[in-house]
Amino acid sequence: MARLIPILIAIGPLWLLWIAFTGSTDPQELGVGLVAAILVAIVAGGEPFSTATFRIFHPRRFLYALAYVPYLAWAIVRSNLDVARRVLSPSLPINPGIVRVRTRLTSPVGRTVLANSITLTPGTLTVDICDDELCIHWVDVQSENIDEATREIVSGFEKYLEVIFG
Amino acid sequence: MGAQQIIGAAVTLLGTAFLFLGALGIVRMPDLYNRMQAGTKATTLGNLLTLLGLGILQPAWLVKLALIALFVLVTNPISSHALARAAYRSGVPLADVTVRDEYPEALQEHGEA
Predict the structure, then answer these.
(1) How many domains is chain A built from?
(2) Domain span holding position A107
(3) Most C-beta atoms within 10 A of its C-beta, which of A13, A143, A164, B96?
(4) pTM for the complete prediction?
(5) Which helix (H) or strand (E) holds A133?
(6) What is the pLDDT of residue B112?
(7) Could you tell me if A102 and A157 lie in one domain?
C-alpha cells in the first residue's frame, strides 16, 4: 500500500501534462491520456513525484539547476564544433584512449546526470561507472593522471551537480 | 517568403549539416568508440537545431518540439553509454592509434572483471 500511494499521486499530474500537450478535451484523447498516465506511473513506480524530486525546488538547488542549463548547452555546442573540426580535418587529428576519473557525487541520480553530461561534452564518452570512478573514452587524451583528467573532464559539471543533488 | 521562413529553413539546414558531419565521422573514424563519439555528438546538435528550425517555422509546435529535444538530450547519452559498454565487454578492439586503456584495471580494482 505504501508503494501504491506515490503511483496514484503521480497519475494526476501526468494526465494533466497529457491534456496540456494535446490541448483537446475530446473524450477519446482524455481516455488515451488517462491510460498512458496510469502506465507511466506504474512503470516509473511513483519515482517522478517522490520527495527526492521536490528537493529540487529548494531555492539554491533550483538556481544552480537553472544555471546548469546554459552551461550544458554551451558544452554541447563546443562538443559538436570540436567533433566537426576533427571529422573535417584531412589528417583526422585524434589521440584516443580510455581514462579513469573520480567523482565526489554520491547520489545515483547525480552520477547519472554527470555521466550523461560528460557524454555530451567535447570528445568524451562515459563507458562505465565503477563505484566513485568513471571510465571515459577520450578522443584526445590530455592527461593519463586520474586527478588531472578529473579536473579536465569532471570538475566543471561537479560544481553545479554537487549543489543540485548534494 | 517571410523572414520567419528563411530563418527557420536556415536553422534546419544547419542542423542537417551537423547530422551529415556525424555520418561522415562514422565513415572516417578508426574504431567503434571513436565512431560513436562522432555519431552521438554531431547528431545531438543536429537534432536540436533541426527541431528548433521546425519550431521557428511552426511556432504552435514549439512546446512539443521542446519535449522531443529533452527526450533526445536524456536518452542519447544513455544509449551511447550502453552501446560502448556492451561493445567493450564483448571484446570489440580499440583502434591502433589508442594511447591508453585504463578500463580493465578499473574493472579489476572494483571486482567486476
Answers:
(1) 2
(2) 54-165
(3) A164
(4) 0.81
(5) strand A133-138
(6) 61
(7) yes
